[in-house]
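## retry 2 of 3
previous attempt timed out at serialization; input unchanged, resubmitting
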Amino acid sequence: MRAYLAGPDVFFPNALEIGQAKKDICARFGFEGVYPLDADFSGLPALPDPPQWGYRSFDLMIELMDSCHLIVANMTPFRGPSMDVGTAIEIGYMHGRGKPVFGYTNVAAHFEERVAPDGFLVEPFGLVDNCMVEGPVHRTGAKVVRADVPADRIYTSLEAFEECVRQAAALMGTGGRSTP
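## retry succeeded, writing output
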């Protein structure tokens, strides 16, 4: 089974290293990890301008997601109190395609605890983020794996990711077993 590995990790300086580590963890649990940077971006420079590069990148991510059986999404807050917006779209896309959605976060606090008061209503549901991104995980029969990671490891810790993949393996029946 192919698992699309969504998250803001692709923006990190060590993006390829993180992607490989995630793929290695997936393999231990019987999944083929598919990282967004696995796409063939070689044709981008031939396109006329940066917006076209962006649109082609979108198409490449759709192709990768369509080739996968499920998604494992990094729902850790990124550039604000909420998760990466692109990852949220990927969650919605995969859920809309009827594919299982699994998620994890390295920030354990509820969404409403992370949002600064601004006079507007904040969903008081005790979820990790907006109900529209945690709902697909719930519909899969899973739970968002939450870890309380120190601030200096929020974007590097893979413990919650591994627990999320373990949960996916149990629910998807891959028979994968973690090995030391």
